[in-house]
Structure formats: structure tokens, C-alpha cells
Amino acid sequence: MLKKITNYFVIPFAICVILMTALFPKTTVDMTNFSTEGLELNYTVSEDIAMLSPTEGTFPTITYDKYFPYLGKSYLGFKEALAFKESRGNYFTVNDFGYLGKYQFGAETLKLLGVYNPQFFLYTPELQEKAFLANSERNKWILRKDIARFVGKEIHGITITESGILAAAHLAGPGSVKKFLRSFGGYNYSDAYGSSISHYMKRFSGYDTSFIKPNRRAKAVL
What we know:
Order of helices and strands: HHHHHHHEEHHH
Shape: elongated
Radius of gyration: 33 Å
Largest sheet: 2 strands, antiparallel
Helix content: 40-55%
Number of helices: 10
Organism: Gelidibacter salicanalis
Number of strands: 2
Protein name: Peptidoglycan-binding protein LysM
Keywords: Membrane, Transmembrane, Transmembrane helix
Transmembrane segments: 7-25
């Protein structure tokens, strides 16, 4: 009986010991393989070299547009810059005052553009993009005479541009922009966060908004 018990426990135990020895042999790590002795680890660059521009030294000129989308002063640059100011480019955000999406539209403005379901609008990025273009087209039609009259002039040191006017209209509405221009800055609406018409005029000046065509009846349609 004792022999059977031994066979049941001792032999399996011996097999386990042999397997553990084979699978996990005792090894000693040779730390010299990881030594940094003799390596040149000083990467300090002298100030005169560090401050060189690419044209002054032997550094290659980096062409970022090969690797990153560069929107510059294009229409895409305009709308993305404005979206970043409004919502950090977040399609699905709603602010404390109920303004929706990437470009922070109010419900009443959306109705003018033919959008009557704010919830659907919030979760439909394509509709938000169409709404931005339609609203810009509508504002450009309303402000067409003021654009022709004021572009190139200065108001309080700000050179008036079409893109600045359209950005300000997105902030405050075309009526408020008309008041600003025709009062030569005397009327300067600010929203609840302190962003003013003059600030938008300056911040978003100089973009190419020729892509936006004046359209009195512009609608956001999928």
C-alpha cells in the first residue's frame, strides 16, 4: 500500500522538478553587456550652434507639408481655425448656453439654415460642415455691400478683410457686424465669454474666403 502511495506522489513530483530545471535553468546576467563605460553620452550643443537658423548652418530645410496637413490661409484653414476657437474642433460638444457642435451654432440660427432637429445636428458631422458653409454664404450675401465698402480699411488699427468680417458674423451675426463697421468700431459686441467683433476681425483676417459664394437662401441639406 505504501509503495502505491509513493508511486502516486513521488514520481509526479520528480517529473515536475526535472521539468522546472529544464525550463528555468539558473543563469547569471552579465552586466557588462549593459555598461555605458566608454560611450559618448554628452549631447550638449553649444548655444551658437543651437541658435542657428537653417539658412545659417548646415541643417537641412524641413518641409512640413510633406508630413502634416498645412491649411494655411485657405478656406479650410479659415473654417478649422474658427472651429478650434469655438470648440477645439469638437463636433459633439454643447456649451453652457446651449450652442452646439464644432462651430457652436444656436438653435435659431440652425432654423434659418433649414435644420430643425438639434440632436440630429449634434451627432451628424457632415451636416455641421454643410451648416457652416451655408451660414457663411448667407452672411456673405447679407454683408456684400459692407464687404465691398470696408475691406482694406482700418478700424482701431485692424485691417478689415472679408474673412475677418465673416468670422465676426459667425460670432455675433451679420447685423452686429454691420453696426460695428458703420460705426467705425463704436459698436463692438462681445459674447458671454468676452470674445468681441474686433477680436474676431483681427484674429481671422487674411484668409481666402473666395470659395464662399453669397447666397441669400443657403440651406444645410444632406
